[in-house]
């Protein structure tokens, strides 16, 4: 028996050697075999080497889902580079921070994102070249606003598919930005070994085989779509039916066709699939596995899904720094409201939030995790890295929860201020800073309130200055949309006379929450 692969690239090569002609990605009527993907990835690597990419240089993927995303992703690894993932909804504030903080040399993007990039290009001294993936005509018009750009076609011209060395397992593979509780978001560094170890644990736990066909509508720029969906596909040698984005009606139609064996989604996707089921009179036949994660799945959604789709969703819990941590069992009881137990080869425990000592089952505390999947630290942030780890290598997740006597973990809240809307994370501070940038805003506080579609929604309480041109709610929402990803904009803005503060002047968000609930 061969040893476990120590990188996703190695796992992918094994799968490609074993079944080169097997479909790896299905996308908009095109079938990409494992061999096709390997050859294109090799060409990306060759092109990067030809452009002088050095080991550990950072390359950003600011790109929609497509086979090119996956080929470029693997190509960067093969050329020895580090991938920086960028949410395609990010706008100037996030782009400026991430691309500069990571010191990105190359950025791969789509034509429709060139406009946003051109707004910040002059503030990105390390960025040498933007590579635009897409139809040549679209690329040339949209990209005209960018000076340092060329099309992917030109970039790959003359590049050949020569073999490359496998990545060093302990080198950083990926920088994924997360957790900006204080100040700006931090880059979590995951090594090739971290990614492979986690994907192995996931594929084993969920009995993923080369026979599976995953319907993949999650964005590839986050842990869920990439680390779970795409890595699992490459490692298991299975097939991903990849979509540009999630659309409930399309997903429903695909499920009706009966070829899908797995679907992974955030809870918003499941509640939209339920709404779709109510509009239809046919139900899809059960598939092998439905998985939910990235945000809490309500017991009501779990129950209704079981009733209408005849299946119990498997809920699991993960985060950018660690990929997947806890999972309900494949064979045993999938218990609603819980996230199950550690994946094979990984550990978890609950500690007291003050003493950081392990505590008894059924008592609430902070979840800590440990294992080969846990990241190496935050990029150029030794202070934050030191703070994130406890003694003996336990990582403090910042999530609160408890463990039942029979070993099931339940997440009960978060130790850090974080809003999760439709599976996307929003740090209140980031939105508050943009609001405070308006000359008519004296004070701002942002918090998450319940939302029927997204789980939580962004709500802002704003104290206006006594000026003549006082901003309206719409103007402030527009300001946020202009500076930040649109999903971070407040859905509701309440103008208040003052914010509740304690004796030390700190805003008391729990009191504010009660006020806003009364006003809603
Ligand atoms: C989109 N919009 C959102 C939103 N998604 N608003 C709040 N929260 C969200 N999650 C807004 C857009 O800004 C836009 O606003 C409008 O909705 C329509 O945009 P859209 O792109 O058409 O939205 P839609 O397709 O409906 O997107 C919903 C969604 C998407 C649920 C399909 O949000 C999504 O793919 N979420 C998955 C996120 C994910 O992969 N998370 C995993 C992170 S990893 P306007 O005003 O501009 O029109 C992680 C670790 C782990 O957490 O455990 O997995
Ligand atoms: P991110 O930083 O984007 O990786 O988001 C990770 C966070 O999402 C975790 O720290 C949790 O707070 C949350 N999360 C992920 N999965 C679940 C889940 N199944 N239930 C509740 N929260 C979850």
Task: Write a structural description.
The N and C termini lie far apart (61 Å). The protein has 3 domains: 8-193, Rossmann fold; 246-415, Rossmann fold; 418-519, ANL, C-terminal domain (GMP Synthetase, Chain A, domain 3, 2-Layer Sandwich). The mean pLDDT is 95. Strands 2-1-11-10-12-13-14-15-16 form a 9-stranded mixed sheet. Strands 7-6-5-3-4-8-9-19 form an 8-stranded mixed sheet, with helices on both faces. It contains 16 helices and 26 strands. The protein binds malonyl-coenzyme A and adenosine monophosphate. Malonyl-coenzyme A (MLC) binds at residues 218-219, 222-225, 245-246, 266, 268-269, 293-294, 318-320, 421-424, 454, 486-487.
Short description:
The protein has 520 residues and is α/β, with parallel strands linked by helices.
């Amino acid at each position: 028996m061969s040893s476990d692969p120590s990188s996703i690239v190695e796992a992918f090569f094994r799968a490609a050697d074993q079944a080169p002609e097997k479909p790896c990605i299905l996308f908009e009527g095109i079938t990409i075999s494992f061999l096709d993907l390997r050859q294109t990835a090799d060409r990306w690597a060759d092109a990067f080497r030809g452009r002088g990419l050095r080991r550990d240089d950072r390359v950003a993927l600011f790109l929609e889902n497509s086979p090119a995303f996956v080929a470029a992703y693997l190509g960067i690894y093969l050329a020895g580079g580090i991938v920086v993932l960028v949410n395609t909804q990010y706008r100037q504030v996030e782009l400026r921070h991430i691309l500069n903080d990571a010191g990105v040399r190359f950025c791969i993007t789509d034509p429709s994102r060139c406009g946003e990039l051109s707004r910040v290009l002059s503030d990105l001294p390390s960025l040498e070249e933007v590579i635009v993936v897409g139809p040549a005509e679209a690329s040339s018009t949209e990209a005209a606003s960018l000076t340092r750009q060329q099309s992917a076609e030109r970039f790959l011209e003359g590049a050949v598919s020569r073999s490359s060395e496998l990545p060093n397992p302990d080198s950083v593979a990926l920088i994924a930005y997360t957790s900006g509780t204080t100040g700006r978001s931090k880059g979590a560094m995951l090594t090739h070994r971290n990614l492979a170890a986690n994907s192995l644990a996931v594929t084993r736990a969920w009995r993923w085989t080369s026979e599976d066909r995953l319907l993949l509508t999650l964005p590839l720029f986050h842990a869920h779509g990439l680390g779970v969906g795409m890595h699992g596909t490459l490692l298991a040698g299975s097939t991903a039916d990849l979509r540009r984005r999630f659309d409930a009606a399309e997903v429903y139609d695909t499920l009706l066709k009966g070829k899908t064996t797995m679907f992974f989604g955030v809870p918003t996707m499941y509640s939209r699939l339920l709404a779709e089921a109510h509009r239809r009179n046919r139900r899809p036949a059960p598939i092998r596995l439905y998985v939910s994660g990235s945000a809490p799945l309500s017991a009501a959604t779990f129950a209704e899904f079981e009733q209408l789709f005849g299946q119990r969703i498997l809920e699991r819990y993960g985060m950018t720094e660690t990929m997947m941590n806890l999972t309900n069992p494949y064979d045993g009881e999938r218990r609603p409201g819980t996230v199950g137990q550690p994946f094979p080869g990984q550990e978890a425990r609950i500690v007291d939030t003050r003493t950081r000592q392990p505590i008894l089952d059924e008592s609430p505390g902070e979840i800590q995790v440990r294992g080969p999947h846990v990241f190496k630290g935050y990029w150029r942030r030794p202070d934050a890295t030191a703070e994130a780890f406890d003694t003996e290598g336990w990582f403090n997740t910042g999530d609160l929860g408890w463990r039942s006597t029979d070993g099931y973990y339940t997440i009960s809240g978060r130790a850090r201020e974080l809003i999760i809307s439709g599976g996307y994370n929003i740090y209140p501070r980031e939105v508050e800073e943009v609001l405070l940038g308006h000359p008519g805003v004296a004070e701002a506080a942002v918090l998450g309130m319940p939302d029927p579609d997204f789980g939580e929604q962004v709500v802002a309480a704003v104290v206006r200055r006594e000026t003549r041109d006082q901003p309206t709610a719409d103007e402030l929402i527009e300001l946020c949309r202009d500076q930040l990803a649109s999903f971070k904009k407040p859905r509701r803005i309440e103008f208040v006379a003052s914010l509740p503060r304690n004796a030390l002047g700190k805003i008391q968000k729990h009191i504010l929450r009660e006020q806003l609930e009364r006003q809603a």
